[in-house]
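Protein in question reproduced for absentees:

***
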Amino acid sequence: LAVFCVKKPTIDFFEKFYMKLKKKFAETENALDVVLASDISDVAIYVKRIEPVSVEVKIHLTSALFREEEVNDVVLAEERKNRVLDRKSCLSVLALLRQTKWFESRMSVSLIVVLQLLKDLSKRIPAWSPLSTWSLELIVERCARTKGYSSQPPQFSPPEVLRRVFELFASGFLLLNSPGLNDPCEKEPVDVLGYLSSQEREDLTASAQYALRLVVYNQLYKILGIAQPPALKNLGQIPRAAAPSSFKQRG
């Protein structure tokens, strides 16, 4: 959740807001089941409830003024004087809100399926772990629109989109001298993948090339991390030794 403030939120306002919220929750019937905590460096308040179902809500404070006004030494000095919350953290909250709106307007059900598969892959395969959720969302959406731009994504099945993602990385676009992946939610050109190191780019490329081979040999189940379907047991196999270290699973 995000709380938009008319003025730039200060540390004093953050602390008052936190104490009032804590008091309000103490007056509820389930006060003993709710735990509140604050992290001023992350401009966030955490509301946790363990029983009957574990739930955690993160509340951020921010203001549109952080992005609207021009930043200079005078503005920064004024923020320090008034004990304004961390500018970088507040800007990150605004960026996350813009990304959420973009996601809701662009993502279809089939693309969300592919996105979940890639998130799972990034947890199991170390080479894919450096990719952020935002970069995965952009890549999936772009790969689904490779046959021209339209207000609605083409009707590609999840396996087709997943293959296009592997083809994109396998092509070596991360290793080429290209502008990268532009962030559509920023005013200035920003490469969403600019933070990747040279080694991470090489590992991702090699891993995607091997994943593409698995797709060609009808071994998608290895990418998904599931048991081999009985109908595929008699088909050709890629030797396990052929898997690059960048595609080895954790554990």
Strands lie at 2-4, 34-39, 44-49, 55-62. The longest strand covers residues 55-62.
